[in-house]
Amino acid sequence: MNLILLEPGDFVEADNHTGTGKPAIAILRARRFQHIAEVHRAALGDTLKVGLLDGQIGAGKVIEHSDQHISLEVSLHRAPPPPLPLTLILALPRPKMLKRTVQHATALGVKKLYLINAYRVEKSYWQSPWLAEEKLREQCVLGLEQAVDTAMPEVLLRKRFKPFVEDELPDIAAGSRKLVAHPVTDTACPVDIPEQTTLAVGPEGGFIPYEVEKLQEAGFESVHLGPRILRVETALPVLLARLFPGR
Ligand code: SAH
Fold first, then answer.
1. Burial of 180 (0-12, 13-18, 19+ CB in 10 A)
2. Which CATH architecture group holds 86-243?
3. In Å, what is the CA distance from 45 to each residue of 8, 63, 226, 244?
4. Per-residue pLDDT for 17 more than 60?
C-alpha cells in the first residue's frame, strides 16, 4: 500500500475533505488500520501518503492511535497521475487471473475496462464471485494503492461478443486508434503512440479467426509482440509499456 486511499465516509467532517488546503480528520479501521499499524508501523506524528478516491493526493499525519483505529489529519494538494489514453477490451480471464489482471491494469493506469466474452472464454468464468461489482472494486482499490493513484477505473461486463462488437464497439472506439493484440500477424505493435487508443486482448486460448475478423471489420488492426506467446497478465504490461512508455 504505497498510498492510503480515503473515501468521503472516512472523514469526521464530511464537508472538509475536498482538497481546499484545510486539514480534515479521517478515521481508519479494519484493513487500512491494520496495514498502517503492522506494515507502516506508524507512530503518532508520522506522515503517510494518502489520496481521496477520485480526488487529490497529499499527506495524512497520525494524530491519534488506538488498538482499533487511527486518526489522520489530512491535507491534499496534488493531482493523481494522468490516465492512459486507453480503453481496454479484455476477454474475460479465468477467476484467479482476473483478479491479478484487474489489479495490474488499474496500477498501469487503465481507466476504462470492458471484460467481454469470446469463444475461448469458458462459460463458468462468468459465474465467478470475483465479477461482483464490490469484488472488482476491491481489486481496483489494491491497484490504485499500489500505483499511488486515486482515479477509480470503470469496469464493464459484456457477456455477448457479437452484439458488443457490432453494436457497441463502434461508438466506444470512435476516433481512437484501434488495435487487437494477436500473436499471428505481420505487424509489430507500435511504440509510443500519442493518440487515444482502444486495445483488445484475447483469452488464454486466443481469439478465434472469426473474432479477429469481426474486430478487423470494426477497424481494428492486428499487432504482435514478437515470436513469444505471453500469458494475458504478461502481455498486458508489455503492450501498455510499449504503447505508452513513461506514462
Ligand atoms: N494460444 C493463443 C495465445 C493466447 S495468448 C494463440 O496461440 O493465439 C492470450 C492473449 O494475449 C492473445 O489473445 C493476445 O491478445 C495476447 N498475446 C499474448 N502473446 C502475444 C504476442 N506475442 N503478440 C500479441 N499478442 C499476444
1. buried
2. 3-Layer(aba) Sandwich (3.40)
3. 23, 6, 51, 39
4. no
- State in Å: Cα 99 to ligand 1 middle: 19
- Ligand 1 pocket test target in 119, 185, 230, 242 with most atoms within 8 Å of CB: 230
CB atoms closer than 10 angstroms to residue 121: 21
Mean pLDDT for the chain?
95
210-237 pLDDT tens trace: 999 999 999 999 999 999 999 999 999 9
pTM of the model: 0.94
Lookup result for grid cell 489530512: 74
User: Which residue's CA lies nearest to atom 4 of ligand 1?
Assistant: 206
* Residue 94 clears pLDDT 60, i.e. is over it: yes
pLDDT at 11: 95
Cβ neighbours for 91, distance < 8 A, ≥ 6 positions apart: 115, 116, 117, 118, 120, 121, 201, 202, 203, 207, 232
Fold of 4-78: Ribosomal Protein L25; Chain P (2.40.240)
Indicate where the chain has its CATH 3.40.1280.10 domain(s): 86-243
- Tell me the three cell numbers of residue 120: 475461448
pLDDT of residue 246: 86
